[in-house]
Design brief:
It is a single chain. By secondary structure, this protein is α/β, with parallel strands linked by helices. The protein contains 14 helices and ten strands. 46% of the residues lie in helices and 15% in strands. Helix 5 packs parallel to helix 6 (110-118) and helix 9 (186-198) packs parallel to helix 11 (243-252). The radius of gyration is 18 Å and the shape is globular.
Length: 318
């Protein structure tokens, strides 16, 4: 797998997909008749909650690790993450015989800390601020020489995440809309690229919690904005978009819809109750957006990416 130095092309996304397939699951697409009736549309849920480590992040981490040269591999890989990307980097390192170093904030869910350690990572706990995460990681990289694999601000990571929508589009024909949640924008930008290349007439719509709406504000204003660090039940979406992801989102995303905390929890509960599958709050944000704007989506064929299922069942929000 080559290092990707600019916005990934279709050929690079196809190469990424071929390279990562021995290490990731080709996840199923599910439908639910009662949800379809409720909305008056046909929804196709791409279930990355069934992915290795329980989230799509495995794809991007694998794609970035496969691009390392032999010298880089000797020193291992490192990242900072509150959860899913932490686990993805840890398992990727384990599968490839690499050392891994992961910085996690003290507030990260215990289930995600334990899983990251379980995959063999050297986990360092830090204060729950971006500055503390970055400073702690910088010290570890200086000591170990490990290569930093960011959770989204990296073209190989974006190419890896783009394979989710690629699979969805290849599985379900003639989608009118493809939807994903937005956090740092790695999945959203990858989704936008795959849809642009493979299904150019479809709309690409992002969904974001309104309390951390930097992507929405950036999209509306045309210049990158930051959110103020509020918290959301969708703990996987608390990061700000980056220059790389925003450049792609600005070009290829049709719209971004924001939803309230109550709407996120209601959509999550609906998925649990009707589809009988476990998803984390971040996964339910696109469905919350569809439920909020039902008229807009009526009669459409909609692909929805369910991003992950790593939830602490002792702390459900409903």
């Amino acid at each position: 797998m080559q290092k990707i130095t600019n916005i990934p092309t279709l050929e690079q996304i196809q190469a990424a997909h071929k390279a990562i397939m021995p290490y990731v699951h080709y996840t199923p697409v599910l439908t639910n008749s009662s949800i379809n009736e409720m909305i008056g549309a046909s929804l196709y849920f791409k279930c990355e909650n069934f992915q290795k480590i329980g989230a799509f992040k495995m794809r991007g981490a694998t794609c970035a690790a496969l691009a390392l040269d032999e010298e880089e591999k000797k020193s291992g890989i490192a990242t900072h993450s509150s959860g899913n990307h932490a686990q993805a980097v840890a398992l990727t390192a384990q599968l490839h015989g690499l050392k891994s170093y992961v910085v996690m904030p003290a507030t990260a869910p215990t289930i995600k800390k334990n899983a990251t350690r379980g995959y063999g990572a050297n986990v360092t706990i830090c204060e729950p601020t971006i500055e503390s995460r970055q400073n702690t990681l910088s010290k570890i990289i200086a000591e170990t020489g490990a290569t930093f694999i960011p959770s989204y601000d990296h073209y190989n990571v974006i190419a890896g995440q783009a394979t989710v929508a690629k699979e969805l589009i290849e599985t379900i024909e003639a989608l009118d809309v493809v939807m994903a949640p937005v956090g740092g924008g790695g999945l959203m930008s990858g989704t936008a690229l795959s849809t642009h290349y493979l299904l150019p007439n479809a709309q690409v719509i992002g969904a974001e919690p309104e309390v951390v709406d930097d992507a929405y504000q950036s999209f509306q204003s045309g210049t990158k904005q930051k959110h103020t660090g509020a918290s959301s039940v969708a703990d996987g979406l608390l990061t700000n978009i980056s220059d790389r992801t925003f450049e792609i989102i600005k070009k290829y995303v049709t719209d971004i819809i924001t939803v309230s905390e109550e709407e996120i929890v209601a959509a999550m509960r609906l998925i649990w109750e009707r589809m009988k599958i476990i998803v984390e709050p971040s996964s339910s944000v696109p469905l919350a957006a569809i439920l909020k704007q039902k008229e807009r989506f009526k009669g459409k064929r909609i692909g929805v990416i369910l991003t992950g299922g790593n939830v602490d069942v002792n702390q459900l929000p409903f």
